Amino acid sequence: MRSPADELGLYQEIHSISGQMVQAAQAAAWDELVVLEARVAALRDRLQAEASASLSTGENESKAQLIRAVLADDVEVRRLIGLWMAEVRPFLASQNQHRKVQQAYAAGGGAV
Hints:
CATH architecture: Up-down Bundle
Shape: elongated
Strand content: under 5%
Helix content: over 70%
Radius of gyration: 22 Å
Number of helices: 3
CATH topology: Methane Monooxygenase Hydroxylase, Chain G, domain 1
Largest sheet: none
Number of domains: 1
CATH superfamily: Flagellar protein flit
Structural class: mainly alpha
Distance between the termini: 65 Å
């Protein structure tokens, strides 16, 4: 079983990384965002793998505040990803259409 300080430290680290994830999404640094998400997933797995510490009322409140902040960061990252997806979706659709045309001509023996 981890100590209360260790448990809160893990939540604080997740909170710190989630803030970095917001910054990465704002900067459209998608590769960095993926790396940061993997770090959060590893920390989350550590939290789930070990027995939870017995926290005082104040420690539980700190934990709850950290979780709320992480969830707020997650909402913002998802919002930014949604905006980016709305921008690239037309491009992806046109590329898909172009590929279908090429495949149709190739299947029919015609040149593109």
